[in-house]
Structure formats: structure tokens, C-alpha cells
Amino acid sequence: MSSNTPRAALGGALAAALVAAGIAASPATAASKPPKPVKVRSTPDNVVYGGFPIDRRPVSTVKPGQVVTIDTLSSVGITVPDVSPVQYFGKLGVKASDVLPDATAFWKTLPKRTKYAGVHTLTGPVDVAGAEPGDTLEIEVMDLQTRVPYGVNLTAPDSGVFSTTYPGFRPGDAPLRIPTAPADAIAGLAPDVRQHLLRTGRSKRKGSRGKEVVFFARGVEVPLHKFMGVMAVKPADGAYVGYTPGAGPYPDGVQSSVPPGPYGGNLDVRDLTVGSKLYLPVFQKGAGFYTGDSHSVQGDGEVSGTANEQSLVGTFRFKVHKRRSTGPYAEDAKNWMVMGIDHDLDRALKLSVRRAVKWLVDHKGMTEAKAYSFASIAVDFTISEAVDRTQVVTGRIPKDVFFRSGRVKAGALAERARTTKASVPIARHDHGH
Predict the structure, then answer these.
(1) 413 part of a folded domain
(2) Beta strand pairing call for 227-232 and 194-202
(3) What is the CATH number of the domain that holds 42?
(4) Cβ(392)–Cβ(336) under 8 Å?
(5) Is 199 in contact with 215 (CB distance < 8 Å)?
(6) What value, to the nearest 5°, has the Cα angle with vertex 341 and ends 410 and 375?
(7) 107 by DSSP, 3-state: which?
(8) Per residue in 311-327, pLDDT tens?
(9) Most buried by CB count within 10 Å: which residue of 166, 239, 374, 432?
(10) Cβ atoms within 10 A of the Cβ of 191, count?
């Protein structure tokens, strides 16, 4: 082509050639409208109690890239058959008009509802068209909003890390000095469980005015940091993460929602807030995405066994990558995240470090020696969740230190992951949220 060819003509010819070769989208394709957003409400038919059944029909099927908004219900206050949500929250000072109608609708179905081994009320499953076993599902968290202006945190002398079922328990350990509840405590709950109603709203304090906070106590405001404690895909056939190491299937054959595993589940990783992406291996056609156990704020560890349990509405976007990851991975604007899951906290740390080393070898071309060195000087390993027996240690690999090679493109965790056999020990716990 002549050097005198006008630039506009050159650009047009190049674009036409790329379209003809199938390398670029045609103008009509590029301008095509994205599919309409989908709304999934937390009606009784859309909510499952305590597990991830793999034979449950999808409540909705969406296309990859389609935006879906999902209502969730906190299980606190809606699962005691003899006490309605209005009664429960009324005892804590909540007006009847501030109790979600779908919470009451769910409660009314308890006598005839199937309850699996877990404790969570979960919305789903949502299927993603084209997802097949062996793929990876990318879950982008686009938005999270509170549905009510309050949440509940539960404490007891022997809850969370003070439970006698906690791996760190030793005979003779003293419980916390938490007084028993009054004689007129809410029926259906253990008398030593204290319910802390934590109201949320906009701060009026100088320096944080307008920001969403928990009004924890007089002079104490905790900034909200909303995330879904449970994000899961349908588990693999015949594979269970149980309540004790080495335990077999649950009596009903359905994976409990309490222990996290290779399917994700009750990860309680507070980093999975707006702007983050979670990558989970697909075990069933359509993936079957469940979510719930919504938290408005939680510290790493969730040490009492619960966060501020507060009903949220989440907006998500899904992508399907045609390779399997080695287990739950995640990323946000600052970090890539790897997770080690095991009933033994030391083992969970070791698994998280091993996954960090492998990630650095696979994605940054490091030797294992160099990757291990980098993990020791630059990767933060924290206890994300310590109270569901299969404990989660998250390693955060900082993105901003890789200034020469740049950031790995979005989705690289899934696209370049290697297929491996995930093995998560089995454990028991009844309090974790």
C-alpha cells in the first residue's frame, strides 16, 4: 500500500480485513445490546435451607456476561419454628415494618421444608449457560446493598473459637464470662447465647459523615464492609466435606453449607466484596451458583462464630473459562488471592503457601525457590475463617509490585490454572456463619 494512502482509509481497510478474518467483531456485533439484567428474589421457592443439593432445579439461568441481582436472607431470626421473625426481632427492638416480608414467608414454610445439615438460608441455584464440568466459573461481585437497617451477631461463653469442638480446645480451657440470657429470653435459643442487635446506617460523625457504619456502641462506629459469606457451586457427585475428618456422606446425601471446600461455600473471606472476583471449579452442568450468609461486616477469622448477619442484595456477573482451577481463587484491584482449606489451621496455612508458590511459578515464571522467597517477604497470609472446622487461610499476592511485567489480565487465574485433584479434609461444626 502506498505511503500516501490516507490514515482513515488505512484504518478502515485494516478493520475490514480483521472482521473478514474473524479476528475482530463486526460493527453490528460490537454494538449489539447486552442481555437484560435478571432479578432473583428470595421467595420461599428460591431459597434452600442448610445445603447445596446438586439435583435442585435452577431458579434462573443466565448467559455468561449477563448481570444478575440476587436477594438473600440472613438465617438469624427466621429458622426457629415457634418464634416468628416479627416476634424474634421485636424482642430486640425492631419494628414489625422493618422485618422483611420474605423472611416471614420463609419462616411459614419451615414445617414442610427440607432442612439439610447446615444452618444457612441460601438463594439459588442460578445456572450459567454453557458451564460444564471441568470449566471454571468466574463470579464478579458488582454491588452489595443492605436490605434492612440492622444485623445480629451472636456470642456465647463457648461459641466460635471457644467452642469445645474447636480444634484448639484443650480440657480445662475456661469459657468466656458471658452471662446467661434473661429468663424471658427468646424461645428456641440456648439460654447462654447473647443476641447483639447491631443497627446500621449513615454516620453523622465528623470525618466519616455519610459513610455506612455499624452503630456498635456509644462512641463506637464500625465501617461496613459488605460481602457474601457463602458463594458456592454445586459440589461434585459423591464428594463430601463432612463434619469430622474422614466422615462419609451425610444421611440425606447433600453437602452441608457449613464447611467450606473446593466448591467454595462458607468461605467467609471478607475480601470478596464489591470489585472482587471469585473463581470456582465447575462440577455440574450449569455450575449451579448458590449464595447467602450475607454479612455487613466481619473481622478476619469470624471468631465468635458469626459476623454482623444482615440480609443483603448482591449484583453479580458470571463468566465461564474452559479450564479448571485447583480450588477457590480470587482477585481484587490490589491482590490475587489463594486459599488453603483444612480442618487443621497449620495445614490450611501450608496449603495456602503451596498454592501461592504454584501461582507465582505458573503466572510469573518464577522458580519454586524464588516463589517461596517472594511468598515469605511479600505475601500476607491471614485467617479468613476459623470457626467452621474446615478453616480458611488466604494468601494475598500484591499486584502493584509487578511493575515491569504489568498485571495479569482479568481472568488469568482461571485461564492459566492447571487441573489438579483437590482434597479437603472433612470436619464438623454447628455454629459457623
Answers:
(1) no
(2) unpaired
(3) 2.60.120.580
(4) no
(5) yes
(6) 60
(7) helix
(8) 999 999 999 999 777 77
(9) 432
(10) 12
What is the total count of domains within the chain?
1
Contact 194/181 with Cβ under 8 angstroms?
A: yes
Grid cell at residue 20: 473478514
C-alpha cell belonging to residue 271: 475480601
CA–CA distance, 343 with 7 (Å, rounded to integer): 63
Query: Which domain range does residue 55 map to?
Result: 38-166+189-323
As a whole number of angstroms, the distance between CA 251 and CA 255 comes to 10
* Any domain includes 20: no
Q: How far apart are CA 367 and CA 362, in angstroms?
A: 9
Sign of CA dihedral 49, 50, 56, 57: positive
Distance CA 249, CA 81 (A): 27
**Mean predicted confidence (pLDDT) in 217-224:** 96
pTM for this structure? Answer: 0.85
- Single-letter residue type at 141: V
Domain-located, residue 421: no
Q: Which amino acid, 166?
A: Y
The sheet with strand 136-146 has its strands ordered as 38-40, 67-71, 312-321, 136-146, 277-281, 329-331, 335-342, 391-398, 380-385
Under 8 Å between Cβ of 73 and 292: yes
Residue 162: inside a domain, yes or no? yes
Side chain identity, residue 370: K
Structure-block grid coordinates of residue 229: 459469606
Element (H, E) at 355: helix 345-364
